[in-house]
């Protein structure tokens, strides 16, 4: 009897898992009739499948891809072999039109069945947090937090010999960890760097255990599509096994106001690759990395959530028959972990969780979109000013009042303002103003690649608490609630380019030096033009409201003051003229910065 492959989409309400988007690799696969089909992995931890180039959902069966169809509320892998759009005959076109399922529809149905578990509504009505206070996530975003890590093998899959407890302890905790190509730090390094030391995660590998069954029991998707039905079972079994080995999880219990007392987040690090980043035959049986609220109790200890992530990232090639086969394996990077722990802190996803191909949201600019996959996840991009503000790691200054010259320092700096908020005063009848722009200074550093350029990034926010909590804030393509305003007018999505330098045009202060039109959803525009945006010496400066503000005959006002360039070179004394730029003036023991145009 032929095996029926099903994913249930008419499921009961379930607790949501918040998973990483798949590592986007597009391959050509050989079908059973000898044709080649182009397919890309899509979905999430609730529903994994593949898509054709025109967005039709397909599933793998007997080594080939077939269209998914809806039968009594279930998405079933049909017997109709799939082809690229240009290779479909009339019968196939008709079948797709009448019976085919779009990938975006499958994801939307899975989202509709979720019971939100993410505490992602912000502390304040504008969607931002308060400096020095924790966001309302499962894990406190302030201070030192301990995470237990359990290494988990399967009855039929164990860790590589080199993947020892010491190795994984280093991956999570060692300062400057760089064992793999493009690795630039540990998970601990990442969060200390993003929070300027305000959030210090401490990871402890507490045990290494073997689950009672093979990996497919926990990760199987019906041999083609669906949910990792037994992922919670794997987590509970791992916890119980560690307790039986004498692990005392009371050392990780946290009691804080507004949160359930217990272990905030347990990390399950499992052997082998993950479904989200794998493409070979049989990879649909792997577990998909995700963070999820748990609510499991053992020995009177409550475990509030878990992150489950994979050991290996694979490289592929095509064999002589055009089949995809893995050719190498490396310890996976920290990017997926950084993305998922962002959920534990309270952050939502900033990609379109309904259809990842429908719109460009934050893309590489945020680790909560696709930025955690910089260099395949080995050197994830740092958090945006919004994310840092949400988590209480930076103070955001509202830009209002009289015309003036403003300066922006990198968000890792302690020298001055690191983020300006430009509110849309039409977006609220009071002063909360949920729609606004955030301006931040991007400069190359450890967690930001030099190839992406330097300058000012303008982020457009339209906060709605319900959309944040439901994790659907960017699912309406005509109303993206978290996106950016590119300086060159073009959003360069990852799917169109894997050259990070193509994103440099998104930044202001280089070729584009003003913003006089701010696209908004309420009203026409913001009455807050900025001019003369400059990116010099690691500092971004601009004129707010008036392009002539701050410009004066500096020659007559300086007297004998000493004048230096921003990098410290003395250029003249006060009796001489200055060319346009930013300068440091020192007079009578007092230093100040001035802008000359």
Automatic annotation (TrEMBL):
<feature type="domain" description="Peptidase M6-like">
    <location>
        <begin position="158"/>
        <end position="391"/>
    </location>
</feature>
<keyword id="KW-0482">Metalloprotease</keyword>
<keyword id="KW-0645">Protease</keyword>
<dbReference type="GO" id="GO:0006508">
    <property type="term" value="P:proteolysis"/>
</dbReference>
<protein>
    <submittedName>
        <fullName>M6 family metalloprotease domain-containing protein</fullName>
    </submittedName>
</protein>
<dbReference type="GO" id="GO:0008237">
    <property type="term" value="F:metallopeptidase activity"/>
</dbReference>
<dbReference type="InterPro" id="IPR008757">
    <property type="entry name" value="Peptidase_M6-like_domain"/>
</dbReference>
<dbReference type="Pfam" id="PF05547">
    <property type="entry name" value="Peptidase_M6"/>
</dbReference>
<keyword id="KW-0378">Hydrolase</keyword>
């Amino acid at each position: 009897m032929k095996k029926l492959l099903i994913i249930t989409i008419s499921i009961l309400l379930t607790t949501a898992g918040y998973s990483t988007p798949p590592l986007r690799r597009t391959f050509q696969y050989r079908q059973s009739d000898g044709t080649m089909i182009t397919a890309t992995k899509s979905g999430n931890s609730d529903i994994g499948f593949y898509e054709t180039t025109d967005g039709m959902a397909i599933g793998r069966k007997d080594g080939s891809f077939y269209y998914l169809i809806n039968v009594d509320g279930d998405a079933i892998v049909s017997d109709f072999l799939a082809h690229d759009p240009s290779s479909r005959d009339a019968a196939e076109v008709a079948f797709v039109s009448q019976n085919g399922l779009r990938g975006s529809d499958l994801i939307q149905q899975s989202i509709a069945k979720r019971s939100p578990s993410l505490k992602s509504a912000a502390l304040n009505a504008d969607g931002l947090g308060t400096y020095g206070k924790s966001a309302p996530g499962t894990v406190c975003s302030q201070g030192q937090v301990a995470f237990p890590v359990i290494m988990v093998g399967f009855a039929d899959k164990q860790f590589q010999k080199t993947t020892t407890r010491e190795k994984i302890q280093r991956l999570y905790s060692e300062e400057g960890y760089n064992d793999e190509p493009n690795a630039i730090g540990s998970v601990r390094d990442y969060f200390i760097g993003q929070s300027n030391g305000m959030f210090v995660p401490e990871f402890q590998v507490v045990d290494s255990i073997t689950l009672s069954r093979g990996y497919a029991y926990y990760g199987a998707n019906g041999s083609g599509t669906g949910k990792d039905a037994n992922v919670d079972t794997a987590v509970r079994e791992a916890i119980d096994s560690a307790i039986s080995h004498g692990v005392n999880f009371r050392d990780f219990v946290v009691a804080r106001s507004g949160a359930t007392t217990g272990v905030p987040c347990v990390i399950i690090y499992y052997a082998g690759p993950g479904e989200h980043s794998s493409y070979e035959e049989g990879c649909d049986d792997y577990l998909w990395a995700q963070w999820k609220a748990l609510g499991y109790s053992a020995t009177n200890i409550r475990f509030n959530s878990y992150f489950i992530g994979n050991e290996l990232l694979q490289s592929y090639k095509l064999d002589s028959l055009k089949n995809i086969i893995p050719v190498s394996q490396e310890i996976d990077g920290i990017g997926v972990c950084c993305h998922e722990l962002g959920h534990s802190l309270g952050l939502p996803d900033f990609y379109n969780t309904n259809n990842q191909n429908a719109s460009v949201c934050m893309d590489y600019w945020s680790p909560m979109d696709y930025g955690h996959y910089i260099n395949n996840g080995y050197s994830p991009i740092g958090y945006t000013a919004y994310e840092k503000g949400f988590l209480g790691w930076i103070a955001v200054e509202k830009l209002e009042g009289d015309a003036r010259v403003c300066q922006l320092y990198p968000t890792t700096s302690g020298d001055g303002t690191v983020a300006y908020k430009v509110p849309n005063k039409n977006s609220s009848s009071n002063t909360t103003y949920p729609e606004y722009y955030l301006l931040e200074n991007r400069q190359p550093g450890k967690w930001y690649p030099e190839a992406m350029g330097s300058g000012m990034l303008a982020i457009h926010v339209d906060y709605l608490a319900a959309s944040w909590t439901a994790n659907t804030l960017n699912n309406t393509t005509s109303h993206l609630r978290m996106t950016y305003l590119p300086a060159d007018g073009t959003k360069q999505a990852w799917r169109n380019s894997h050259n990070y330098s193509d994103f440099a045009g998104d930044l202001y202060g280089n070729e584009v030096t003003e913003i006089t039109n701010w696209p908004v959803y309420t009203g026409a525009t913001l009455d807050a033009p900025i001019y003369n945006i400059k990116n010099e010496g690691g500092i971004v400066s601009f004129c707010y409201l008036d392009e002539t503000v701050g410009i004066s005959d500096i020659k007559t006002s300086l007297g004998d003051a000493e004048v230096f360039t921003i990098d410290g070179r003395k250029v003249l004394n006060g009796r001489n003229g200055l060319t346009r730029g930013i300068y440091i003036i020192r007079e009578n023991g007092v230093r100040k910065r001035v802008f000359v145009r």
